[in-house]
Amino acid sequence: MRRLGGFLLVVALLVMAAVWLVDQPDEITIRWQGWRIDTKMPILLLGLLFVAAFAAGLGRMARTVVGAPGRLSGARQTKRTLKGYRALSEGLAAVATGDTRRVARLAHQAEKLLKDPSLTGLLSVQAARMGGDESELRARFETMLTRPETAFLGLKGLTDLALRQGERDHARDYATRALSIQPSAEGLAATLFDLQAEAGLWAEAEITLSVARRYRTMPDEELARRRAQILYARAQAAEDRGNRVEALDLALAARKADPSFIPAIVLAAEILRRRGKERKAAQMIQAAFRIAPHPALVAAWIAFGPTDTPLERVKRVQRLVEVNQSSSEGHLALAEAALDAKLWGQARTRLMQALEERPSHRVLTLLARLEREENKDEKAALAWLAKAGALPPDPV
User: Which parts of the chain span the membrane according to its record (predicted)?
Assistant: First the structure.
């Protein structure tokens, strides 16, 4: 509607002008500086149109002459930009092929032509990484920090570099800054949590865990275990201060967060045992052994009978193992107790069952001990130890 209204207004003005010209005398006289010009209206209009067209042509020519250097410079810049993008794409392709020299050359060329670290930074970083120059790599990452669009990549790269060089405090600082920029980054919250836990910064670790929970960057099971880790650390600190009430509450909270988190269960059971609540402590250890058999649980269970004879200890361990008779940890616990009691047949039976389920250092080491103590057979013992040496270390 607006365009239509403007068009009608222009047409009306043209009609009014035409009517006005028709009403004017046919002859026109112009006097200027002693000169006199007699002419007709159409000729005057044609002359004015010619002058206007001539002036417009002169103006366009002047703009063309004045703007020529800028257009030439723009054309050169466009050509440089196209060459820069070509170098950038070829450099990224060279990264995939592992051509270190070509990557370095194309990264330098792209950087020189584009002069935009936000575009060339990643290729320059790859060139430095492939070249093995960590000081250059650090400089490249630090350059990326100057621009908001590449700051996260720079901080993430500096975190990984600091971890590789053993600079744990610097890595923690970089990871904290990176997480504040991109809290949804996969794996970053877990890395930062581990660094904070390592430094004993449990309040900061709890904040990191809340970020991970909010942005769902950790599975629920991992969140629960790390939450239990925080609560256990606080419980241990309370225990060290002599505040056993708080320590027990925190250890039980850790157990609730993750029922298979053994350190918290052992601590809670130990506090309960010292307070004379052995029945409750025993039930807690048995419940944990049922779902997650572990040597620490066996040790805590044996601690209930500090004056047990070797035979009594076998019976005590038997009661624990009954809640999870299929676990190799139960076989090993009974085998070790039987070895102490010199019940060679029972020890061998349990060790062979454990060996059948999962060969490990502990199984083979106990078999070597059995050969030494029962048969005094050093050769057989050494044979078991040699097999143990060929296996990977037992999980801790």
Answer: 41-62
Q: What is the pLDDT of residue 143?
A: 77
pTM above 0.90, yes or no: no
Q: Within the chain, which residues score under 50 in pLDDT?
A: 85, 88, 91-93, 95-97, 99, 103, 114, 119, 123
Give the whole-number percent of the chain exceeding pLDDT 70: 67
Domain 327-395 falls in which CATH fold? 1.25.40
Q: How far apart are CA 317 and CA 333, in angstroms?
A: 7
Q: What is the pLDDT of residues 27-74, one digit of tens each?
A: 666 666 667 766 666 666 666 666 666 677 776 776 766 655 655 555
3-state SS of the chain is CHHHHHHHHHHHHHHHHHHHHHHCCCEEEEEECCEEEEEEHHHHHHHHHHHHHHHHHHHHHHHHHHHHHHHHHHHHHHHHHHHHHHHHHHHHHHHHHCCHHHHHHHHHHHHHHHCCHHHHHHHHHHHHHHHCCHHHHHHHHHHHCCCHHHHHHHHHHHHHHHHHCCCHHHHHHHHHHHHHHCCCCCCHHHHHHHHHHHCCCHHHHHHHHHHHHHHCCCCHHHHHHHHHHHHHHHHHHHHHCCCHHHHHHHHHHHHHHCCCCHHHHHHHHHHHHHCCCHHHHHHHHHHHHHHCCCHHHHHHHHCCCCCCCHHHHHHHHHHHHHHHCCCHHHHHHHHHHHHHCCCHHHHHHHHHHHHHHCCCHHHHHHHHHHHHHHHCCHHHHHHHHHHHHCCCCCCC
The predicted structure's pLDDT at residue 180: 93
Region of residue 46 (left: phi > 0; alpha: psi -120 to 50; beta: else): alpha
Identity of the amino acid at 258? D
The domain segmentation of the chain, as residue ranges, is 327-395
